[in-house]
Write a structure and sequence with these properties.
Layout (H helix, E strand, L loop, with lengths): L15 E6 L9 E6 L2 E6 L6 H16 L17
Parallel strand pairs: 1-3
Antiparallel strand pairs: 2-3
Length: 83
């Protein structure tokens, strides 16, 4: 089962990044980043890329984080809304 951000319920506490298809992405956008308590999710408009590409992006994100080539530092507090 997944959350609205495509995150697996009961997932580990490690900070991670993942891509998922979402109907909520506006037609003027292709990918929308979303900061979650577990890391950063990237909502992708359905039809914007093949599912195989999405799978490869998830594999690349997992690899980059697992070997230390990339790191995600989550903000300690919510940033103020943009004006």
């Amino acid at each position: 089962m997944t959350t609205p951000t495509g995150e697996a319920t009961g997932s580990s506490s490690a900070v991670r990044a993942w891509y998922f298809f979402s109907e909520a992405v506006p037609e003027t956008e292709i990918i929308v980043p979303i900061v979650t308590p577990s890391g950063i999710a990237f909502a992708v408009r359905p039809g914007a890329m093949p599912e195989q590409t999405l799978d490869r992006l998830n594999e690349a994100a997992d690899h980059l984080l697992s070997v230390g080539l990339a790191a995600i530092r989550l903000p300690r507090q919510t940033p103020p809304p943009e004006p």
